[in-house]
Amino acid sequence: MSYGTGGGQQLPPYQQMPSAPPGSSAYQGQGQGLNNPQYPAHSQYGDFNEPKSETFNNLEFSDKSIRRGFIRKVYSILMVQLLVTVFFISIFLYNDDVKLWSAQNPGVFIGSLILTIVMLLVLACCESIRRKSPHNFICLGIFTFAEGFVLGAAASAYDQNSVLLAVSITTVVCLSLTAFSFQTKYDFTAHGGILFVCLIILVLFSFLAIFLRSTFPILNVVYACLGALLFSCYLVYDTQLMIGGNHKVSISPEEYVFAALNLYLDIVNIFLYILSIIGTRD
Prior knowledge:
The protein has helices at 25-29, 55-94, 96-104, 106-125, 127-130, 135-155, 160-183, 192-212, 218-243, 256-278, and strands at 42-43, 46-47. It starts with 24 loop residues before the first helix and ends with a helix. The chain is globular and about 50 Å long. Helix 2 packs across helix 10 (256-278). It has one domain (71-278). It is mostly helical. The chain has a two-stranded antiparallel ribbon.
């Protein structure tokens, strides 16, 4: 039988491939690709022996790179905040004219405190602002300068040596807790609710200490010690939120301003509580 073409040419007849005799290795391979070593095994999803895709490895590497960049950005912002704060504290400690001017104008201190609270609420509650540049940096800058003024005025009420000692202790504590946060396998992010409950209890205890400080002066020291301990735990908690990885909860890389704000508040509170414990008022 032949098949004609449009040009009148004839194709050679179809020849069937001879089948191999039964029992031979070639015969065993016919129609049995799964058992024939010459033919790779197949399925409806592809070859079983095909090399694994590198997509997941690339994604994992990309996530780690993004997280490292996020951590660098957070600590860069935090360092600027701390430098501004140290600058204000130094001015109030070593410039008597600024200290006197602040004492004669308490309205500036109150206004700075209110501005600090307002900017803190804006950054904490308005996600569209804290994620949008340059609005987030503007709000964070206003908050940092106002908070620096408040801390400088508060630190000026203490002896210079007490403030310097409190700064030194805070530095050692924060660096040690940060290193611990990066190295420990214990996940503090799984206990955010417990820390929040402890914070509420600490706030209630502060009211008790205010009314009973004259009768029981030791309550102030106890309150300051508990506050320093709680915010030390919060520093570890917020650091692990920033690290991400295998921790139960992590913060989004888009929240670099919010992460820096959390770490800054933890460090500031640790400093204030340590200053309350060891500080000597002028």
